[in-house]
Input
Amino acid sequence: MTFHRNFRSSPWLRPCCVVGCLWVLVAWIPVIQASPIDPAGSGTGGFAEEVKKASSAIKSSVQNLAGYGTLAGQQGFLARVLISREEAKLLYKTVEQTVHFEDLLLIVLIGWTTVPVLKIPYEKLMMQRPFGDTALFVLADHLQQIAKIATLVYLTDILQLYCVGLGFDFCKMGNVPHAFAQAAYTVWGAQRLAAIKKYLLRRYVSHHPETYGRMQIFNRLLDAAIYAAGILATLNLFKVEMGVAMHSFLAFGSVGTLAVGLASQGITTQILNGLMLASSDRIYEGDSVKFGNGQSGTIVKLGWLETVLRGSDEVMVSIPNTDLLKQQVSNLSRIRYCQVKQTLKIKYKDAEKVPGLLDMIKQEIRAACPFLITDGTRPFRAYWTDFTPESALEIMVDAHFYLKPIGDEYFSNRMQVLQAIDRAVRNQGVTLVEI
Output
């Protein structure tokens, strides 16, 4: 914990660690001189010849030392790994003939120092816009990411070189570094495409806020399409580059297809139902809804398998998408109007005061509620509707407003309606029946 705090707070410890890591990389990790795509190399004897010589020399020497009657000779792996110092030097010299230390150093510097190097002069110029929001940062960040992937590709190439030199035959099968490079850049390209897509959708939503929910669904569907295409492209690359190994993997996948298919029927059904629910435009994340079974709340997450609903008591409920498709859904967030309806019971002795009370109730509601609908498109009523068994008169008040039936604004308006009715009852001297 102490080292962790010092590492974060000290202004010099972090640069020293970076310099130390660079020194280790320069001193101990050789860089392939040849391109990962062209293994011929520019060394004295070529990549293939040097590796073959080193592999044969080391293999024969190790076999002589370990023997086939020993545990190392029986296991094979130990016979290849347990080599002498002279054999290790021979292997290192073979690798050294085909690599350049400068290549890896340059890539590492680009991959880990481009953004800091550009950020320092940018901030020295006292620019008002944060460096992270500039196009220069985006360009430098992408350059760093490409360089980091290139570093991994070079290290994979070196690792294959060492493994082939130790006599591991599986490393000779296909062009492993080439396949790794193409797969890594394919995955990176899919991630960058998804990020650009997300940025464009955010820009669109900032100008059209009403499309937020629809764009969320669109964003999720595009993510699925992009990553599915990336996975298929990566598998195809491995199939082409790795040859027999990938065919064996695919054969194993074919054997297990039936079992996996049977086990995932329920999951597949829920995913399809989630896709149908998303494309149906019924609900979005953030909508306040009410289901046919009486559940109500706010949609917190609209997933592929289930939907998370937050109730008014802050309790989270996960509902399978299959169940949601079978229920009636009232999306309260999309309703533009609301209703406040009340039933009053007054004593029979105040029957002659009813006409004046009804007019007074309407006047008070009009004065207190600016969102009241009075153009005739929605009803605004106050009527004497019935006699009750308790020898009382029943009065119904029904008003509609230009407000959504959710949120503080709705409840504030509802309270104003109740207060207006109370004022009218008091002004007319009418007595309500106690329940």
Observations:
- Residues 335-428 form a domain with the Alpha-Beta Plaits fold (CATH 3.30.70.100).
